[in-house]
Amino acid sequence: MLQFVGLHEINGPLVVLDGVPSASFEEMVSLRLTSGETRFGRIVELMGGRAVIQVFEGTRGMSLENTKTTLLGHPMEMPLSPEVLGRTFSGSGRPIDGLGELFCEQSADINGMPMNPVERVYPRNYINTGISSIDGLATLIRGQKLPIFSGSGMNHNKLAVQMVRQARLSGPGADNFVIVFAAMGVKNDIADYFRRSFEDSGVMDRVVMFLNLSNDPIIERILTPRCALTVAEYLAFERGMHVLVIMTDITAYCEALREFSSSKGEIPGRKGFPGYLYSDLASLYERAGIIEGSGGSVTQVPILTMPNDDITHPVPDLTGYITEGQIVLDRQLDQTGVYPPVSVLPSLSRLMKDGIGEGYTRADHSDCSNQLFAAYSRVQDARALASVIGEEELSPADQKYMTFGRMFEKHFVCQRFDENRSIEQTLDLGWALLSLLPREELDRVDSNTLEQFYKPDEAAKRFGV
């Protein structure tokens, strides 16, 4: 094992080492400072005998002359054990909960192993979040990747906590469900909010938490989702558990990637992000799925904030290409006090059709969601017309749609933070709201289903209209 004394160059979080005969890309290194402190890094670029090293703890206090660098001969690895459940780690995988080091059963490369496409199982069955606007209209399917598009200052952290507290499986394997939660670039008060919320609600024993604070090095932020997904893959494919991975905020990860790319002198792409942003995000998102014979699954819910609420920004734009749908939060609903402020029409789950219905949720789920979408889109047309001619001048049918729209947002989309609705409650509420409309307007549902669920008198009494 060779030790190199001295560095050629220090540039931000990077150091350059010359005359390295046989190094490997992403190989781990240890750097011993003159003060006796040891820091770790990994090789991120190789040019002939020159190695560019990314230092996890930053380069402050490092010397060009006396720093001693040792190549460790392996990529960065995450220690793994069933004991990870209930533990809290830093972004680079070190325990920060005061419970000591992890008793390591095995270690795995944080970059993961690519899934064989032939071995992938098509995602079916759903994860119940207890949130009607998600369960009813954009159902989260086990093994899916379904991002949440939010905006700065909106309630996405609160929504993430509610999903961790309430998410559960139905059917076989319901008790074998765990959550891996990764927070990137969050402030101290938000990190404390996450930790306190999980402990107070009693779910911490089935949660693995990774916290990367906003004042931590950006290099650690780039490692955080990879460490989290390595733990998720171990629990799913080695231990046979069903794992829900919630990652917030992907935009903070991408901005760290942009800063790191700039310090390496790479040519920037759109809005300064590196040209490989798409493939980098795909290397994270594609680690969701189900492998034949494993018994477990990895489901991802990445949360990202759209700068200036711009859905065409590179981060949400590329995320939308890779993932199977999206849940979009609406600032206007948020400002009117609706929680969660889910914008129904641009939200969708592309795998929903294969994981709902008889044997999964309920036979009428597809009919109910299709009709709710169709009716709510008519509400937007009626509101646009009312803004021009006034609500009093609308036709009787459009006035019914206006009433439906108000009740839909008040009772279906809006719900309390501690309210956990079953899929049956969500669907029954959806049918009750549809019963506010004239029967001839419900053209997405067959007559037999309407006969069973269309009850206008009960709906009018329930909603007081």
From TrEMBL:
<dbReference type="InterPro" id="IPR004100">
    <property type="entry name" value="ATPase_F1/V1/A1_a/bsu_N"/>
</dbReference>
<dbReference type="Pfam" id="PF02874">
    <property type="entry name" value="ATP-synt_ab_N"/>
</dbReference>
<keyword id="KW-0066">ATP synthesis</keyword>
<dbReference type="GO" id="GO:0005524">
    <property type="term" value="F:ATP binding"/>
</dbReference>
<dbReference type="Pfam" id="PF22919">
    <property type="entry name" value="ATP-synt_VA_C"/>
</dbReference>
<keyword id="KW-0406">Ion transport</keyword>
<comment type="function">
    <text>Produces ATP from ADP in the presence of a proton gradient across the membrane. The V-type beta chain is a regulatory subunit.</text>
</comment>
<dbReference type="GO" id="GO:0046961">
    <property type="term" value="F:proton-transporting ATPase activity, rotational mechanism"/>
</dbReference>
<dbReference type="InterPro" id="IPR027417">
    <property type="entry name" value="P-loop_NTPase"/>
</dbReference>
<comment type="similarity">
    <text>Belongs to the ATPase alpha/beta chains family.</text>
</comment>
<dbReference type="GO" id="GO:0042777">
    <property type="term" value="P:proton motive force-driven plasma membrane ATP synthesis"/>
</dbReference>
<keyword id="KW-0375">Hydrogen ion transport</keyword>
<feature type="domain" description="ATP synthase A/B type C-terminal">
    <location>
        <begin position="354"/>
        <end position="454"/>
    </location>
</feature>
<dbReference type="Pfam" id="PF00006">
    <property type="entry name" value="ATP-synt_ab"/>
</dbReference>
<dbReference type="GO" id="GO:0046933">
    <property type="term" value="F:proton-transporting ATP synthase activity, rotational mechanism"/>
</dbReference>
<keyword id="KW-0813">Transport</keyword>
<protein>
    <recommendedName>
        <fullName>V-type ATP synthase beta chain</fullName>
    </recommendedName>
</protein>
<dbReference type="InterPro" id="IPR055190">
    <property type="entry name" value="ATP-synt_VA_C"/>
</dbReference>
<dbReference type="InterPro" id="IPR022879">
    <property type="entry name" value="V-ATPase_su_B/beta"/>
</dbReference>
<dbReference type="InterPro" id="IPR000194">
    <property type="entry name" value="ATPase_F1/V1/A1_a/bsu_nucl-bd"/>
</dbReference>
<feature type="domain" description="ATPase F1/V1/A1 complex alpha/beta subunit N-terminal">
    <location>
        <begin position="9"/>
        <end position="63"/>
    </location>
</feature>
<feature type="domain" description="ATPase F1/V1/A1 complex alpha/beta subunit nucleotide-binding">
    <location>
        <begin position="130"/>
        <end position="349"/>
    </location>
</feature>
